[in-house]
Design goal:
Elements lengths: L3 H10 L5 H40 L5 E5 L5 E2 L3 H6 L5 E16 L2 E10 L3 H4 L6 E4 L10 E5 H7 L9 E6 L14 E12 L4 H4 L2 E5 H7 L6 E2 L1 E6 L5 H12 L3 E5 H4 L1 H39 L1 H9 L4 H37 L21 H23 L10
Helix pairs in contact: 1-12, 2-10, 2-12, 2-13, 10-12, 10-13, 12-13
């Protein structure tokens, strides 16, 4: 068993001749603990926001989405697509059509994304849970209905209980453009609003309107065997990654298969950049805090100069003596990291269960308190970074020890 850690431990806990060394060592440990706790708290809050927004997207996005690799149209009678219906891992397959059209209500006009869905869409997503006005319905048995995002509804000034129809204008996909009669270049349809949804994401709330799949096929001139995407719900217990890989193998390069993360890839990429840039700033703060370790260790080396010469006389070489002080600096970082981890995880746990830190001072926010999600890989990464910087800070003064020249 190595003797260096034992000597380093004795140096850490024993009283020094200069009381200032004890104070600086304590400050070093405290600084590392504070930054460690801050890193864990910040990363956990960023994870919490990510999980909350992912939950919002999951209320509208399907588990898997299939689109053509080129162009906008896929054919439902393709043998490869038909083979998907036989896969036991897939519980539901719903064709959808998404196209941009002009929405008009009274004197207000705004472009919107119309999404045609079939009768199984309620089983595909949790759309019912995000209806804030009216009901979910795209067909009531007599009239075509629509459900639109709250931002879009506010823009055109409509609500779920309005009895006047919304007019849709979609450019014709086939045929020649009539320059003399521009109005003939559009297919039009009047439709009644049934409900308003709120995903609490601008992408959907300000732009999307749900209509029936037959109406979308009529409006955008698609046949019954055409769609722009297939949205899938998997069977309970099925692995998204495994099913996604199996579907890609069946469909080949002509189709793109996206999971929920990939459907919102740009958003999640920005979120990850924000998370790790914030963590990087805290690492710089930790680097500054590590200078305290350098100061503490430098003073300890001077305080223990007689011990260094005695150890050398007893047979300890420079490498062994340097390792003693490397262990000493690393122990300061380790104690700070351990204390900071306990504090950080405790604070995150309290916030997660009690929500003490509120958002917006009680105002009408989507989230009432800062969300928290403690993830073990993040905690381990913080510990590795803290200990690595602590080892680097200890190495700087320890490398200057030289017993051959009788200098320490």
């Amino acid at each position: 068993m190595r003797i260096e850690p034992h000597i380093a431990w004795r140096y850490l806990v024993a009283k020094k001749r200069q009381n200032a060394i004890n104070i600086i060592s304590g400050i070093s440990c405290l600084a590392v603990a504070v930054v460690t706790a801050a890193m864990i708290c910040v990363l956990s809050v960023m994870n919490g926001f990510g999980d909350a927004i992912e939950q919002m997207f999951s209320q509208f996005d399907a588990e898997l989405r299939i689109t053509p690799a080129e162009g906008k149209t896929l054919h439902l009678d393709d043998a490869r697509i038909q083979a998907l219906y036989a896969m036991p891992e897939i519980a539901l397959i719903a064709p959808t059509i998404e196209q941009t059209a002009l929405v008009e209500f009274h004197d207000r006009q705004v472009p919107a994304i119309l999404k045609g869905v079939d009768t199984t869409y309620q089983q595909l997503t949790t759309i019912d849970s995000i209806i804030i006005d009216g009901d979910y319905a795209v067909w009531d048995g007599a009239f075509e209905r629509c459900v639109m995002g709250v931002g879009l509804a506010n823009t055109i000034g409509i609500g779920a209980h309005f009895i006047s129809p919304v007019h849709l204008y979609a450019p014709k996909r086939v045929g020649r453009v009539n320059m003399l009669r521009p109005d003939e270049n559009f297919r039009t349809k009047g439709i009644f609003i049934a409900g308003v949804f709120a995903v609490n994401q601008t992408k959907y709330d300000d732009s999307y309107m749900l209509i029936s799949l037959p109406l979308a096929q009529e409006l955008f001139e698609y046949t019954e065997q055409q769609a722009t995407a297939l949205e899938l719900r998997l069977s309970e217990g099925a692995s998204v990654k495994k099913v996604q890989k199996a579907i890609r193998a069946k469909l080949g390069a002509d189709y793109v298969v996206l999971n929920r993360y990939e459907q919102q890839a740009d958003f999640y990429r920005i979120q990850m950049i924000e998370k790790w840039l914030t963590a990087l700033l805290l690492v710089f703060i930790l680097l500054i805090a590590s200078f305290n370790i350098i100061s503490s260790l430098s003073m300890l080396i001077l305080d223990k100069s007689d011990d260094i010469r005695l150890l050398n006389t007893l047979g300890a070489d420079e490498r062994m003596i340097r390792r003693i002080f490397l262990y000493e600096g690393w122990l300061i970082s380790a104690f700070g990291a351990l204390i900071g981890t306990v504090i950080g995880v405790t604070l995150c746990g309290i916030q997660q269960h009690f929500g003490l830190l509120k958002l917006g001072n009680g105002m009408n926010y989507v989230l009432s308190a800062y969300p928290v999600s403690i993830q073990l890989p993040d905690v381990l990464l913080v510990l590795v970074v803290v200990l690595a910087l602590g080892a680097l800070a200890a190495w700087i003064p320890a490398r200057k020890i030289s017993v051959t020249n009788e200098t320490v």
